[in-house]
Amino acid sequence: MTVPECAEALGVSLSRVRELLKDRNLVATRRGENNAVYLPAGQIMEGEDARYVLATVRGTVMVLADLGYSDDDIVTWLVSPHEELEGSPLDALRSGQ
pLDDT band for position 97 (50/70/90)? Predict the structure, then answer.
């Protein structure tokens, strides 16, 4: 999802999404011809009253960054299937694993 799509999904401003990215509560990568910022949509959860950022993303991103992963590498790792997880790490985080 793009930054504007994320802002709309969360019901916040574009600057708030950028702040969430800066604070590592969300992670994104650049792609496409215009080098636009894209976020894995799985970082956003559906709550009873509103959508919210999956809390465990920040800790995961911080650990991977400390290990030398770039944001591109982190996004790839989060969304790629892993046999031992029977899905992607992001799927595992979403299910509370």
Answer: confident
